[in-house]
Specification:
- The complex is a heterodimer of chains A (about 90) and B (about 300).
- Chain A has about 90 residues and is an all-beta fold.
- Chain A contains no helices and 8 strands.
- In chain A, strands 1, 2, 3, 4, 5, 6, 7 and 8 form an 8-stranded mixed sheet that branches.
- In chain A, strand 2 and strand 3 form a beta hairpin.
- In chain B, strands 3-2-1-4-5 form a 5-stranded mixed sheet.
- In chain B, helix 2 links the parallel strand 1 and strand 2.
- Chain B has one domain: Pyruvate Kinase, Chain: A, domain 1 (3-Layer(aba) Sandwich), CATH 3.40.1380.
- In chain B, helix 1 runs antiparallel to helix 6 and helix 4 packs across helix 6.
- Classes of the chains: A mainly beta (about 90), B alpha/beta (about 300).
- Chains A and B meet through strand 4 and strand 7 of A and helix 1, helix 4, strand 6 and helix 6 of B.
- Strand 4 of chain A pairs parallel with strand 6 of chain B.
Chain lengths: ~90, ~300
């Protein structure tokens, strides 16, 4: 499955960076998923769960405070104020 | 010899003090590394945020931004956010900032100070102690304690308070005073206008902005959400800069103290040896004198 680069960044550290096949985001007008080769997008995010599906199919969940996401050139950058849980917990 | 003992005592004292200053220097060095680390960690987030805002803003006019935080009003009340330190023994770090702030007040805000319309939020005990005695109204009359457990969240509480005050009309202009970290040896003192925000400040439109973004849920809405966010980062960064400066300044001050101790020790040791030698000479003279007296008898 086609993959793209995902970064989840908070002001205090880089929480996640890696190649993923899809990511589900808590958009302010409802949650949506981003797959590889998504069109350029900027959207604000609500408080909620970011669900990452990695290359090998493992899923990871991050519960986050609100933020913003940018999709550009097959790179997704999620900026959130805070990530609450341990990023290694599997969903 | 009483004199000898006295000098020995003083040497001991200086050595003990040096141990303390050395230890403080080491601690400051470790904290400095942590502080600069935090600054580096913040960088990718701040850069990206600036970029995104730049993209969103590129086609907008400032008048079209429906955010209260960009509102330019006639200035009646001014808020100063003064970032100092909780603890002393950090060289001229606080004193310099206070002098700079006083000068700034005198040059730009003296009328507000006289009419009692000058407010302040002090991050750091030292600043609070200093300015609360000098005719500046402290917001909530208390000290916002963000420095003991520094985190983005805690700084945000302060930022929220500043926003609330601005929106409710408690103040019409906000300026942040802090030490910017240049390098370990030197700091720049900065008076940074914080509110009302101008767009040129928060983001310069990006050249790559001709990419056709999909905006969810629309440019204005995004911007209204992002402006507070970018301000939070700005204050957080100021606090981090100040924190790093404080540790750097303390490290240098303690290093100097240790050096001064060395100079003092050298002097004392010389004195000690001289006194010791004098005592020995005197004793020999006495013995020789005694022997002479015996031989002559």
């Amino acid at each position: 499955m086609a993959t793209f680069k995902l970064e989840i960044i908070t002001p205090e550290k880089k929480v996640y960076t890696g190649n993923v096949s899809s990511v589900k985001l808590p958009g302010i007008d409802g949650s949506f998923s981003v797959l590889s080769l998504h069109a350029p997008l900027i959207s604000t995010l609500d408080k909620g769960t970011v669900e990452v599906t990695e290359e090998n199919g493992t899923k990871k969940q991050f519960s986050t405070q609100g933020g913003v996401v940018e999709v550009l050139n097959n790179e997704v950058t999620v900026l959130v104020e805070k990530v609450f849980n341990n990023p290694n917990t599997e969903a | 010899m009483a004199n000898l003992k006295e000098i020995r005592g003083r040497i001991k004292t200086v050595q003990n003090t040096q141990q303390v200053t050395k230890a403080m220097k080491m601690v400051a060095a470790a904290k400095l590394r942590k502080a600069t680390d935090r600054m580096i960690q913040l960088r990718p987030y701040a850069a990206k945020m600036k970029n995104i805002i730049g993209n969103v803003v590129s086609a907008l006019n400032i008048d079209e931004i429906p955010s209260k935080l960009v509102e330019q009003r006639p200035v009646k009340n001014v808020l100063l956010v003064i970032v100092s330190s909780n603890r002393g023994l950090c060289g001229p770090f606080n004193a310099n900032l206070f002098r700079f702030t006083n000068q700034y007040i005198q040059e730009n805000l003296s009328s507000f100070k006289q009419s009692g319309n000058l407010h302040a939020i002090c991050l750091g005990k030292k600043g609070f102690d200093y300015f609360s005695k000098r005719g500046i109204k402290m917001v909530d009359g208390k000290n916002f304690d963000v420095l003991t457990q520094l985190s983005f969240e805690r700084v945000n509480e302060v930022t929220e308070r500043i926003f609330d005050g601005f929106i409710n009309g408690e103040w019409d202009k906000v300026v942040v005073m802090y030490n910017e970290f240049k390098n370990v040896m030197s700091q720049n003192r900065i008076a940074e206008p914080f509110l009302p925000i101008t767009i040129e400040q928060s983001a310069t439109p990006v050249k790559s902005a001709n990419t056709d973004y999909i905006f969810e849920p629309g440019r204005e809405k995004i911007l209204v959400d992002l402006i507070p966010n970018s301000l939070k980062i700005r204050l957080y960064r100021s606090v981090l800069e100040s924190n790093a400066s404080e540790q750097g300044s303390r490290m240098v001050a303690m290093d100097q103290a240790t050096e001064n101790g060395n100079a003092l020790l050298k002097e004392l040791k010389l004195k000690y040896n001289k006194a010791r030698q004098a005592a020995i000479t005197k004793e020999i003279l006495e013995i020789a004198g005694g022997a002479d007296a015996l031989a002559n008898a």
